[in-house]
Design brief:
With 336 residues, the chain is mainly α. It has 14 helices and five strands. The termini are far apart.
């Protein structure tokens, strides 16, 4: 049975076929199944917004925002995330007049998603951006989403213990094992790891342009990672590939990596936790926060402080007790 997907545009250029979503202008995956899944997801987030939109409504404002340079200039990954939250806002408040939105309404919206604090916080961030866009266009004079307190998050992504890394490497397919080592020794996000090419690697350094921030990094390759890369057959310009030699999509990579995690008998561990683990290992080696950031590309040292606080506490506590013991000795060398 052929399923026709709405809002898909096909473009042929330079001997290659590209696919785009007509409304969001997002480039879609080349793989047919991944493309269908992404189109269904986008259309679901747009449900309720593809209808007659009243002027002055939040839905009208969101429509203008998605057509503006402010949205077009976002990186592709950010646009995808924004679209999800913009879809939620349109479904929830689409007919709401922009001028009638008050702080109490925004707090109620945040609290509605309290069981998923990450989603709630990101939803308010996107709403704040949209309302700032409204202020710039004189739809209202204030931004009631400004300074809304974030909900407390859970512990976040767990770092990988050494025994978990050993168990994963012992049971995982070679490509997933290589993915883990790249994440562990570069501290990069999964999207940037998936995008790494052999052209970026010269045998000593690997170059990265982080998709989230645009930060350019040149990372010296750890000997363990250099050995793993040297043993990998180069079947594609991209380092990490599927069994058919094609680059992983985000969903496909999460599926295969998660499957390998479960096959190793591990639970509660995800790829992003390797970014945490890399930061902790660098801190344990005595690296400063700026040195760690030169590898991981963190813009916020506060996040690195969160990652490395336990390491710093243990190091400082050890130094403090050592000083106390030295200060407590009497002239004859006995403790007081």
């Amino acid at each position: 049975m052929i399923v026709r997907l709405k809002h898909v545009k096909r473009v042929r250029a330079k001997g290659h076929t590209y696919w785009y979503h007509r409304i969001t202008r997002e480039r879609l995956p080349d793989d047919r199944e991944d493309r269908a899944a992404r189109v269904i997801e986008i259309n679901r987030t747009l449900k309720g917004t593809i209808r007659k939109i009243g002027p002055g409504s939040l839905a009208d404002l969101i429509k203008q925002y998605k057509q503006a340079p402010e949205f077009a200039d976002l990186r592709e990954a950010s646009r995808r995330q924004y679209l999800i939250h913009l879809g939620t806002l349109s479904e929830t408040w689409g007919s709401q007049p922009i001028a009638s939105i008050e702080r109490k309404h925004i707090l109620a919206l945040r609290d509605k998603y309290a069981e998923t604090p990450g989603k709630a916080n990101h939803l308010i961030i996107v709403l704040r951006i949209v309302l700032a866009f409204a202020m710039d266009r004189d739809y209202r004079r204030d931004n009631p989403a400004k300074d809304i307190k974030k909900l407390k998050m859970g512990p976040g992504h767990k770092p990988w213990p050494d025994e978990a890394i050993d168990a994963f490497l012992a049971s995982s397919p070679p490509m997933m094992g290589l993915a883990l080592k790249i994440g562990l020794y570069t501290g990069q996000r999964s999207g940037d790891v998936r995008a790494m090419s052999w052209h970026d690697y010269d045998g000593e350094q690997i170059k990265v342009v982080q998709s989230k921030t645009g930060t350019k990094l040149s990372i010296p390759v750890h000997s363990a990672l250099r050995e793993a890369l040297g043993a990998q057959e180069r079947v594609s310009p991209i380092i990490l590939t599927t069994e058919t030699g094609r680059p992983f999509t985000g969903a496909n990579f999460r599926h295969h990596f998660g499957k390998a995690v479960r096959a190793a008998g591990l639970y509660g561990l995800v790829f992003h936790g390797l970014r945490y683990t890399a930061s902790v290992r660098l801190a344990e080696a005595g690296c400063s926060l700026k040195e760690i950031a030169s590898i991981t590309g963190h813009k916020s040292l506060a996040m690195l402080e969160k990652y490395t606080s336990d390491v710093d506490q243990k190091r400082m506590a050890g130094a403090a007790i050592h000083r106390l013991e030295n200060a407590s000795r009497t002239k004859n060398g006995k403790p007081r």
